[in-house]
């Protein structure tokens, strides 16, 4: 079975692979959901509240690359009705 490796676009650190992929969305947010990621992915303990766009009113933790500090994505803590599916 073909496999892909997901890398940071800033420094090419390996973040995960397609064997850990459990969902993807090509809509407004365009995201991938992985069961597991490498130690290169770190998440901030503090919650951020979305003030505009698709994350308006959502609470989330920001994911960043440990190697270069690039923002990679988020972990939703609470979501609007549109995103809660």
Automatic annotation (TrEMBL):
Family the UniProt entry places it in: Belongs to the yippee family.
Organism in which the protein naturally occurs: Probosciger aterrimus
Keyword Zinc: yes
Molecular function terms from GO: metal ion binding
Keywords from the UniProt entry: Cell cycle, Cell division, Centromere, Chromosome, Metal-binding, Mitosis, Nucleus, Zinc
GO biological processes: cell division; CENP-A containing chromatin assembly; chromosome segregation
Record's subcellular location: Chromosome, Centromere; Nucleus
Record-given protein name: Protein yippee-like
Gene Ontology CC terms: chromatin; chromosome, centromeric region; nucleus
Gene: Oip5
